[in-house]
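A quick aside before the break. I want you to see a complete sequence-to-structure record at least once, exactly as it would be stored in a machine-readable document. Don't worry about memorizing anything.
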Amino acid sequence: MNIKTIILDFIRIINHNSWVFLVFTMVLFLQCKKEDNYLYEGRFETDFVIPAGLSTILTHYITIRNVYTDASRNATNNGQDVQNLKSVQASFGRMFTLEAGNDLDFIQELSVTLISRTNPNLKIEMYYSEFVPFTVDNEIRLQSGSLELKEILKDDYVDIEIRMNLRNFVPNTIKTRLNMSYIVL
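That is the input. The structure line, written in tokens, reads:
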């Protein structure tokens, strides 16, 4: 073999692999679809207290009643009827302390469930955080659940259930705020 044949073989291999790469890239590109644009985003929040002394052994539930979602007004302000929305999905959510010096690093796992006021059997997990980092400080950013919220957010008031598993005892009573947002498609 001379150097010329080696170079020609190398060029053929590169050209062959380039075609494979090009076809692979085109297939991936054609599989992509445009994301649905949302019509509007709604936000609501509620304050609650995490009592001191909760243990690491039990799962703890905090229920907050009659949380105002402002869903009807948000829909009307955006030219929609809350009863006829196509889809409502959870968006950004976070839980944070209201007083300086309080951290939430004692929480190991957290979920936020919306409960319908008109049908208490209708419960949907809106947010969760399965493994809260040890270095969370005073704010936990929550992962959005993938379930449809349309039926629950037809009403302006919901109940919220916060489920927590702890890695440490709660050191003192902590005033906390839960910020929630949703998008309407």
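Two observations worth writing down. The chain has two helices and eight strands. The mean pLDDT is 87. We'll return to this after the break.
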